[in-house]
Specification:
The complex is a heterodimer of chains A (about 425) and B (about 475). By secondary structure, chain A is of the alpha/beta class. Chain A has helices at about 20-30, 35-40, 60-80, 100-110, 125-135, 165-180, 195-210, 250-260, 305-315, 335-355, 360-370, and strands at about 45-50, 85-95, 115-120, 140, 160, 185-190, 210-220, 240, 265-270, 290-295, 320-325, 325-330, 375, 385-390, 395, 400-405, 405-415. Chain A is built from eleven helices and 17 strands.
Chain lengths: ~425, ~475
């Protein structure tokens, strides 16, 4: 609050539409004869229904998804909008609830006349909302990283073009882990679907590398102390792979550190455990020298790209991945880029489809399905992407970072090929 | 060691209360850090503080206990032209009505984002947290700002139908409305949704106006309108009282005004317990413990829609459970006191009856309910307060920037820091402990007024004291417990 007058010019939801007039006008002046009509017809904003976790368990993510979305829309509008039309975000809180999610999707389609729905993170909300989006024939662009889209369980109207899915992320870790950290892996994971996905995807992938999961330690979800599980870690373990989540994560790491002391195996985890958590939090000293998957490197690296720089500035995030208005306010950096990239893909899709209104929704989906390679750019600051139009899922590089002097330093970037797997569905065969 | 930890806790708490001008919010990292704090030591210290206060008060002469709650009279202008000004009071109520109507419209047509729209921020952050707590400090603000009394006094009173609600039903309707309201907070799928909330606020506004027209203010405000009853009780915790006609001000220990109230009706006592019961459940329902009881994975909360029934039954059950536990404490106390007279002089048996002492003692849970509310909502108010400030800069959502907050970004940053999380936690815990100590003193006061001998007072107090000590533990545990919803 005290810093509100300092720092770079940040984006608030209120000014995302400002300045669009000039951009929209520029974009329409290419059609002098049509201008009067076109101006009248196209000055209507493109409405994007933003299904945001404002309340409920996803609220910490929702706050940053909102900031990123507002920043992406401001940039798009500053550049002239989409097809010369301004973009307007209609944010509805889904309460991180699947039933409410479906209601929100319905509101976007019937009440707010949105062109598309966008932005959902939590998988159970995607599962609850996607069927309704399909029934309403509303393109639904999720930013969830769940495997649900590519698994074929959803429908032709649901797409995930801006963020990779957990299956590809996990399997892409195996070559690095197997080659650099060790072949004998003990997995510690919470005993429910999220943990089981990691267990199954990674076990399969490490075996392909000639490695082996020597122990699978499933921790009951309600557990808040973990010392009794650590003696189960076999002595010949070379790597501990952990994916604990929830409030007890800091306790888990602290107790793991106390258990091993100075002589520990290599340790690899997913940053999901510590997303929006300061890596220098108490108890996390033990993480020094351990490795994490990151969707996008939280700390600006020595070889920072201009795209990463532009993206951070636009969202208001500093070189440590925290808010420029409060260095203690750590963002959900590994995930929120998905909102930025998805909106840029929506823009490209609408432009190549010549999107005019809801009657062109199917054309928009076809246009996105036709996309494939997207190079790293200001539109894709996380890295290059390869979209699979059949499975409606994007693929991209993953980052493995080592905690070095209290910062996450990238030590390996996977190729897109490392992340690919066989198609499990072809949505393009489904009718609209 | 424990005493020192507790003293440290109090010092830290005051430091936060006095020095914290920055704002914070709740998310998983805060919870994670709380789990790293030595909360067990803090909890034991807090409980010991409350138990010590019980022992201390047990050995004090009654007059001494009574003197705690004797207010000081201060010669200060009483400002009758403000505080006794019925016209001004009605005018403020009418302005409040106008603001509520504007908020209802904003809720219906403004931003769909509950952290941008003024309606949910005004209702849940400003009214339900800030205004609620201000009553315990400044007195009955609601009697001035409620949206009904102005219009009723100036117009509707004259068109009233003159019916009366039966006296026998007491404030049962208010209890039902209050628990239903809490059910809306806890069990509804989207109580923050601006459109949904707009309908609820409008519905309640009309419901109350209709009630006032049909049954009159006397009946409706005392038997049905739960917030009028709630806030007038909370206002009795205020240390201040401004007397009319130049009789100065009175200032005393919080609760002194509440203890002046004679003959609290039984249903009002149940209402007081409902405030505590509902407030306590609004906290329990987020804990790992509760989620495990209702077979929900605490690491993958499926959303409110999956727990509508457990939450609804939970809040009803929590209230009934509290009524029963409180009644058992009273019954047990009376039983033991009377047991002391069995075989002896039968005529000396206490003539204090169950219902009378139950009703009188219920007032002592009021400070506990107030501090629960404050501590439970502290972090929420810190983050949503920031959103409220941002929204005030653009109340109509038309892009105006009245407060010049264009670059304003809400932060939850210092919940990532152990020092600030500890300060916040200890502030909450200290509030809970202080509330219980006042409750213990108030309970002792009430008991001492009802029983003749020191022995009877102490014996009767034991079950209630155990109840309050347990509640202290429960309140502190609630602050420390891992949460998953």
């Amino acid at each position: 609050m005290t810093d509100k007058k300092k720092g770079p010019k940040l984006v608030s939801r209120r000014n995302t539409l400002k300045g669009i007039g000039a951009g929209a006008l520029l974009a329409t002046t290419g059609m002098p004869k049509m201008m009067g009509y076109a101006q009248a017809q196209t000055s209507e904003p493109i409405k994007i229904g933003f299904q945001v976790h404002r309340t409920g368990i996803g609220a910490a993510y929702g706050r940053w998804y909102d900031r990123t979305t507002q920043a992406a829309v401001k940039r798009i509008n500053d550049m002239g909008g989409i097809n010369g039309r301004p973009v307007e975000i209609v944010a509805e809180d889904d309460g991180t609830d699947p039933k409410r999610g479906a209601e929100v999707v319905e509101k976007f389609a019937s009440q707010h006349n949105c062109d598309i729905a966008f932005g959902t993170l939590f998988s159970h909300v995607v599962f609850g909302s996607a069927p309704r989006a399909g029934e309403l024939k509303l393109p639904y662009f999720v930013v969830s990283e769940g495997h649900h889209v590519a698994s074929g369980k959803l429908n032709r109207y649901t797409l995930q073009p801006g963020i990779t899915d957990v299956k590809s992320q996990v399997q892409a870790m195996a070559p690095f882990v197997g080659d650099n950290l060790g072949k004998k892996v003990t997995m510690i994971y919470p005993d429910f679907a999220f943990g089981h996905d990691h267990r199954d995807f990674f076990s399969e992938a490490i075996e392909r590398q000639g490695g082996q999961v020597v122990a699978k330690i499933a921790v009951p979800p309600a557990e808040t102390s973990f010392t009794k599980y650590f003696p189960k870690i076999p002595r010949d373990t070379e790597v501990v792979y952990h994916v604990m989540v929830g409030p007890a994560v800091l306790t888990f790491v602290k107790e793991l550190g106390e258990f091993f002391g100075p002589s520990r195996p290599e340790i690899f985890g997913f940053i999901d455990s510590l997303e929006a958590v300061d890596i220098n939090s108490p108890g996390l000293e033990f993480l020094e020298g351990t490795y994490f998957w990151e969707g996008m490197p939280r700390y600006a690296q020595a070889n920072q790209t201009s795209h990463d720089k532009l993206y951070r500035e636009a969202v208001g995030v500093d070189e440590n991945g925290a808010s420029t208005s409060d260095p203690k306010d750590v963002s959900t950096f590994a995930h929120m880029f998905g909102c930025w990239e998805t909106l840029n893909i929506v823009k490209k899709g609408m432009e190549s489809a010549g999107y005019k209104g809801p009657e062109d929704r199917a054309k928009l989906i076809e246009a996105v399905e036709a996309m494939s390679d997207m190079p790293m750019s200001d539109d894709h600051p996380q890295g290059a992407k390869r979209f699979n139009g059949k499975t409606h899922q994007t693929f991209g590089s993953q980052y493995i970072s080592k905690v070095t002097d209290g910062k996450l330093v990238v030590s390996h970037t996977t190729s897109i090929e490392d992340t690919l797997y066989e198609d499990e569905v072809d949505y393009t065969t489904q009718p609209f | 060691m424990r005493v020192r930890a507790f003293v440290n806790a109090l010092i830290m708490a005051w430091f936060v209360i006095l020095s914290t001008t920055k704002i914070a919010a709740a998310h998983v990292s805060e919870q994670g850090i709380v789990l790293l704090l030595p909360t067990n030591i803090y909890i034991i210290s807090g409980c010991l503080a409350v138990i010590s206060s019980m022992l201390l008060v047990a050995f004090l002469p009654h007059d001494r206990v009574f003197s705690f709650f004797k207010p000081l009279r201060i010669r200060l202008p009483s400002f009758d032209f403000v505080f006794q000004n019925a016209l001004l009071k009605d005018a403020i109520s009418l302005v409040s009505l106008a603001i509520v109507l504007c908020l209802i419209v904003i809720g219906a047509v403004g931003s769909r984002d509950p952290l941008v729209n003024m309606l949910p921020l005004s209702i849940w952050t400003f009214w339900w947290i800030v205004i609620f707590m201000m009553h315990s400090v400044f007195g009955n603000i609601w009697s001035w700002i409620n949206p009904w009394s102005g219009l009723y006094n100036r117009a509707l009173k004259h068109v009233g139908l003159g019916l009366k609600l039966p006296r026998q039903i007491g404030c049962w309707p208010a209890i039902i409305v209050f628990i239903a309201f809490y059910g809306f907070i806890i069990a509804d799928i989207a109580p923050d949704d601006p459109a949904r909330l707009s309908n609820f606020v409008l519905g309640y506004l009309i419901f109350t106006f209709l009630g006032l027209i049909i049954f009159g203010a006397e009946s409706w405000f005392k038997q049905v309108e739960c917030f009028t009853i709630l806030f007038s009780f909370l206002a009795q915790l205020s240390p201040f009282k401004i007397n009319a006609h130049g009789r100065g001000w009175h200032i005393g220990l919080p609760g002194w005004q509440a203890l002046r109230q004679r003959n609290i009706p039984f249903t009002q006592a149940l209402f007081l317990l409902s405030v505590l019961g509902s407030g306590s459940f609004d906290g329990v329902n987020e804990t790992f413990w509760w989620l495990v009881q209702i077979d929900i994975n605490p690491l993958a909360f499926p959303g409110r829609s999956a727990v509508v029934w457990p939450s609804t039954l939970g809040i009803i059950g929590a209230n009934i459970l509290l009524y029963v536990i409180f009644a058992i404490c009273i019954w047990l106390g009376l039983k033991v006191v009377n047991y002391g007279y069995s075989g002896a002089d039968h005529s000396a048996k206490t003539n204090v009856n169950f219902q009378r002492i139950f009703s009188a003692l219920a007032i002592s849970v009021l400070p506990i309910a107030a501090v629960y509310h404050a501590s439970h909502y502290l972090t929420t108010s810190m983050v949503n307060g920031q959103y409220l400030i941002a929204a005030l800069s653009d109340p109509l959502g038309n892009g105006s920037n009245i407060l010049g907050l264009e670059n304003y970004q809400v932060t939850t940053g210092y919940l990532n820091e152990i020092a600030s999380v500890r300060r916040i936690w200890l502030s909450q815990a200290s509030l809970v402990v202080l509330g219980h100590i006042i409750a213990v003193l108030m309970a002792h006061y009430v008991i001492a007024k009802h029983f003749n001998t020191w022995k009877d007072v102490v014996i009767f107090h034991i079950p209630i004291a155990l109840f309050m000590a347990t509640y202290t533990w429960f309140g502190l545990w609630l602050l420390a417990a891992p949460k998953g919803a």
